[in-house]
Amino acid sequence: MAAPLDDKTRSIVKACVPALEAHGLDITQEMYKRLLADPEIRDLFNMSHQKDGEQPKALALAVLAYARNIDTLGNLGGMVERITQKHVGLNILPEHYPFVGKALLGAIEHVLGDAATPEIMEAWAKAYWFLADVLIGREKQIYEEHEAAPGGWVGWRSFRVRSVKQESSIIRSFELAPTDGKPVMKHLPGQYLSFKLEIPEHGSQRRNYSISSAPSSDHYRISVRKEDGGVVSSWFHDAVREGTELQVSAPAGDFVYDSANEQKTVFLSAGIGLTPFISAVDAVSADEKKNIRFIHGTHAADTNAFSADIQKLAGSGVLQADIFFSARIPSDATNASNVRYHAGRITKDWLTTQIDPGAVYRLCGPDAFMRDMVDTLKTAGVPVANIRYEFFGSAADAELLAAV
């Protein structure tokens, strides 16, 4: 366990909050510039988050949150867990941390200039290594859990695509089985797989995709939305076929559906955000007597993925579904057993009329949708502890993003 930070170090770090508020993004952009100059380190990152600026922004928010909460680090437990889960998925190891520390401290000194006194730099070095030790310790625990789990593994494992299915005009599912023919670790609904990919003309790439199948000791399934200009998603749609081999790390992530302790759950999603929820509802049988509501927004009939699955689950009494079409309701969509179709988007006004304060709300989707829905639920009086959500993208902490 890392030794606690001394009072002087914590005082100096807190005093840097105004500087981080003003220059945090400049610092993290400079840090990544330095860090990614090393090809071996660069290959550990999802470079799309560098191009759109998401990763530097996420790290700037995380560093700011660390400084603000340096006296109450327990407030950052959720953020730390999300980061460590991401790191394990990407196979980040203790030997990578000195590279990050050198780049971060160098960036602080570069951006702050003369204001980065030796005293400040010493405090930030101590603060960085304290947090690094916390992350390394938790990651070690997760790696050990993966290695000990039935079907578990550490590092990259070879999987073969054994089937491909077109779920909608823009979403395609890939069922994966290990090439060694041995069992796989059962995932928890809501977890994701991380991939180490070699894309022709684009080199090494890292991506995370939510698992969209029910837990199994035999295989996994991911469902990939083809993004305009998306290097990896386009490669999955255009080049990955049955028999393609992929390098995969063990399931990770803490955004998991706790069916044992959730008698009432509302899954609220838009677009590709439904994939972790498909895994969750597929794992529930009709005799479990759960109260599940599935609310999803899509564009039109051709983008409505997993519609047959939802209708089947609704028909068997597993859930009640509300499906929204932002373009128009398809002509063949008629309200059926436990399924209702709506025109337009999921709005704050509509959601406010549907609130069940005793339910756990699980949200996943585009950032703007998430912000609106979280704000609506909080305003409507849903306890914060009952609102669980995950943003797409980098290892940014959802609470931080929601507060921006």
Secondary structure elements and their pairing?
Elements: H1 7-15, H2 17-35, H3 39-42, H4 48-51, H5 54-68, H6 77-89, H7 97-112, H8 118-148, E1 157-166, E2 171-178, E3 192-199, E4 203-210, E5 220-225, H9 231-239, E6 245-248, E7 264-270, H10 275-282, E8 291-298, H11 307-315, E9 320-325, E10 339-343, H12 348-352, E11 360-365, H13 367-379, E12 387-391, H14 398-403
Parallel strand pairs: 7-8, 7-11, 8-9, 9-10, 11-12
Antiparallel strand pairs: 1-2, 1-6, 2-5, 3-4, 3-6
Helix pairs in contact: 1-8, 2-5, 2-7, 6-8, 7-8
Describe, in plain words, how this protein is organized in 3D.
The chain has 404 residues and is α/β, with parallel strands linked by helices. It is built from 14 helices and twelve strands. It is 40% helix and 20% strand. The strands form two sheets. It has a six-stranded antiparallel sheet, covered by helices on one side. A six-stranded parallel sheet has the order 10-9-8-7-11-12, sandwiched between helices. Helix 7 (97-112) packs antiparallel against helix 8. The longest helix has 31 residues, at 118-148. The model is unreliable at 394-404 (pLDDT under 50). Belongs to the globin family. One of its GO terms (molecular function) is nitric oxide dioxygenase NAD(P)H activity.
- In N-to-C order, the SSE pattern is HHHHHHHHEEEEEHEEHEHEEHEHEH
Distance between the termini: 32 Å
Q: Which value, in Å, is the CA radius of gyration?
A: 22 Å
Rough shape? globular
Secondary structure: helix percent: 25-40%
The structural class is alpha/beta
Order the strands across the largest sheet as they lie in space: 4-3-6-1-2-5
Question: Total strand count, please?
Answer: 12
**Mean pLDDT rating:** 91
The biggest sheet, with number of strands, parallel, antiparallel or mixed sense and barrel status, is: 6 strands, antiparallel
User: What is the helix tally?
Assistant: 14
The fraction of residues assigned to DSSP E strands is 15-25%
**Poorly predicted regions:** 394-404
Cofactor: heme b
Pfam family, one: NAD_binding_1
Family: Belongs to the globin family.
Catalytic activity: 2 nitric oxide + NADPH + 2 O2 = 2 nitrate + NADP(+) + H(+); 2 nitric oxide + NADH + 2 O2 = 2 nitrate + NAD(+) + H(+)
